[in-house]
Amino acid sequence: MDKQAILAAIIDSSEDAIISKTLEGNITSWNRAAEQMFGYRENEVIGKHISILIPKDRLAEEDMIIDNIRNGRRVQHFQTIRVRKDGSTLPISLTISPIKNSDGTIIGASKIARDISDQVQAEQETQKHLRNLEYMLSVSHTLSEKLELQSILQQLTDITTRLTGAEFGAFFYNKSDSNGGHYMLYTLSGVPQEAFSNYSIPRNTPLFSKTFNGEGIFRSDDIRLDPRYGKNPPYDGMPPGHLHTVSYLAVPVTSTTGQVIGGLFFGHSLPRMFTAEHEKLLEGIAPQAAVAIDNAKLYEEVKALSSLKDEFIGVAGHELRTPITTIKGYLQLLEDQAPPGLTKDFIEKALRQVNKLNRLVTDLLDVTRIHAGKLEYSIKRTSITHLVKECIETVWHIHTSHIIESRLPEQEVFVMADATKIEQVLINFLTNAIKYSPRANKIYIQVSVHPNGTTTPSPPIHAGGTALPSLPIHAGDAPLLSPPIHAGDTPLPALPVQPDAPGYVIVSVRDCGIGIPKQHLQNIFHRYYRVSHPHHAISGLGIGLYISKEMIERHNGSIWAESKEGEGSTFHFSLPLA
Questions:
Q1: Which CATH number describes the domain made up of 380-576?
Q2: Which site from 221, 447, 514, 563 is most exposed, i.e. has the minimal number of CB atoms within 10 Å?
């Protein structure tokens, strides 16, 4: 067999379509694979222009290919679309090479076309799975952002209605009341509530049973053709007020315990609008929705328990107030009449404990009032410097073990505030500083004024591993208060406060105590949060800083803390100037 015959046999037996053409684009050869790929027999295409295989919107590709061939350049693995004889399209990969005559002149081109349908389909499937995964992650993120049940269900209905292309979607779910009764509720997407107002609530009929019994997804290209459709008295066909539904898709949502929470229902007025792909999407979303709904229900239960707890604390607090007040009154009478000595000392200690108990009851009642939105504020123009001085004096008389050094502006600084509430925050800061500084004997408090035009700092959550900023401590030329206030070498410069250009004031309380571990700093203002110290047993309910935060933020201020374990902490709050 000569070389030409061998070459012809190879071309004829190739699984790839091998076509040759002139530089003008006329087909000159056509192998058996080309016949199978494009549907034309050899005698149908020889002499015809190659454009019979090219979609109209891709004719420019041929000019590009011929231009490369004329310049002796090979075109490799060019992916494109070509047209079969029956008009269907085919994705192919082309390799085009110039054909030269005996003297080296380019006279045409040879094309090798490979069917890449399987590859393209695999890529499309991969892309589809990636898109579905993105949808799942997006839905999971969206549903996990909220804990309010109705909001979660509305978002779930909106998202799934949009993903399926349904004209309307609804989620029906069972709700239990406090008496153990059940009733059906729903969320709706795609149409206004008015369009749904006359829509009867789905019953557990044969058509809906698969969904409400959690048996799986049910899809119908035309629900009107289902033998179960319209066979449930008192309706014959579409119930009155029902949205016109042809394509139908229903998905049960089942909790992690296996209980059917409810069902997603989708409708469209045209047939065959929902696909197996939509089923797969919803099959992945339904378990995520179930977890989000379970979490929301748990959150509702926790809120209900928390409400009962706050109610109990409120009642108990008020009941405790009367005996505490009575005990305190009798102790004060005894203190006035007791002679100096052991008895008087015992009475004073008992009074201190009663005062401590009274503060705890007050704090607990404040927490319940904050949660109920009933904590009242009396906002007036108040001197923050005067409040600081009074609080220093009050705390020092009770805790004589520590010296409180201060740095205050020479002029009075005014804010719009409820003086009682800000005093409560200041005393909380100071007493905490003393309580958490068992081996130190000094506490520092500073008031700094920042007139308008300066930038309000973003409060840091914590200082991490960096050292605490230095707070210079001065009190001017003379003591401000009866407690010992240690003055520096130079007087504090006056900090001007301009009435027509208010800014903000920052109050900082620093201790040199045990500090707060970094991992606890972001939580210390949460309700009932307490930092446990392995070497320090410190009493408290973990509500003082929570109350302080609520009060400061109610004054349009900010509160934050910095700390370094083993070296101390600095607590700050800022308030707008009056």
A1: 3.30.565.10
A2: 221
